């Protein structure tokens, strides 16, 4: 009897023993480690850029005003998709799954637009500005700039692509009735990832395009 009572009095050691689902803890752990990786990329970028006699080109010279404006628009699209992700969770908690699916579809479209514009930008820069990267002719004074730019934005673009696939899987689960109000924490976890991707891009955009 004493053993039975002790068992009942023990704290819950199940999925929410800390008041937070294991899935959310796992996502936060992943995001912290991922943030360290991005911090390494940004630190490397800063080290190369502000080293003596680096010959670092002016962002306005490399991208042009139109290029920076296009990327600013792309940043706005990603921020809007983050806002729509908030509505996905909000409508799911309310049980309005039709509206939640529409907001999730808007989030996915926003991610696709972002990746598409970034692909267009890469194509323009590699073929027109940095042809030496693919064996063409050109002055390679900005090799460090090109390599760090492609590494940093490419790594982030990979995260956005994974996020789009992640959200698409959730959208299909919502459409089939497997994800809804009863397990809205799944959407909350996906939202953590998507907001993280949004925040990181704001930092990348500021460091690479504006400073």
TrEMBL record:
The keyword Transmembrane applies. GO terms for cellular component: plasma membrane. Keywords: Cell membrane, Membrane, Transmembrane, Transmembrane helix. It is a multi-pass membrane protein. One of its GO terms (biological process) is aerobic electron transport chain. GO terms for molecular function: cytochrome-c oxidase activity. The chain crosses the membrane at residues 25-46, 66-90, 102-120, 149-172, 192-210. InterPro entries: Cyt_c/ubiquinol_Oxase_su3, Cyt_c_oxidase-like_su3, Cyt_c_oxidase_su3-like_sf, Cyt_c_oxidase_su3_a-hlx. Residues 1-211 form the Heme-copper oxidase subunit III family profile domain. It is found in: Cell membrane. Its main location: membrane. Belongs to the cytochrome c oxidase subunit 3 family. PANTHER family: CYTOCHROME BO(3) UBIQUINOL OXIDASE SUBUNIT 3, CYTOCHROME C OXIDASE SUBUNIT III. This is Bb3-type cytochrome oxidase subunit IV. It comes from Persicimonas caeni.
């Amino acid at each position: 009897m004493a053993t039975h009572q002790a068992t009942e009095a023990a704290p819950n050691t199940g999925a929410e023993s800390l008041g937070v689902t294991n899935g959310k803890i796992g996502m936060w752990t992943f995001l912290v480690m991922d943030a360290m990786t991005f911090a390494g990329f940004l630190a490397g970028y800063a080290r190369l850029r502000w080293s003596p006699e680096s010959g670092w080109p002016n962002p306005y010279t490399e991208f042009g005003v139109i290029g920076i404006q296009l990327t600013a628009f792309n940043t706005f699209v990603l921020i809007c998709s983050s806002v729509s992700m908030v509505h996905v969770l909000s409508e799911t908690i309310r049980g309005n799954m039709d509206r939640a699916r529409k907001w999730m579809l808007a989030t996915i479209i926003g991610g696709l637009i972002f990746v598409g514009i970034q692909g267009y930008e890469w194509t323009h820069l590699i073929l027109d500005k940095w042809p030496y990267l693919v064996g063409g002719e050109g002055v390679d004074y900005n090799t460090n700039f090109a390599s760090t730019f492609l590494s940093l934005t490419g790594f982030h673009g990979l995260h956005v692509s994974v996020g789009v696939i992640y959200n698409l899987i959730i959208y299909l689960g919502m459409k089939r009735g497997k994800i809804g109000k009863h397990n809205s924490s799944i959407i909350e976890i996906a939202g953590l990832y998507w907001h993280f991707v949004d925040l990181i891009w704001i930092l990348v955009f500021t460091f690479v395009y504006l400073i």
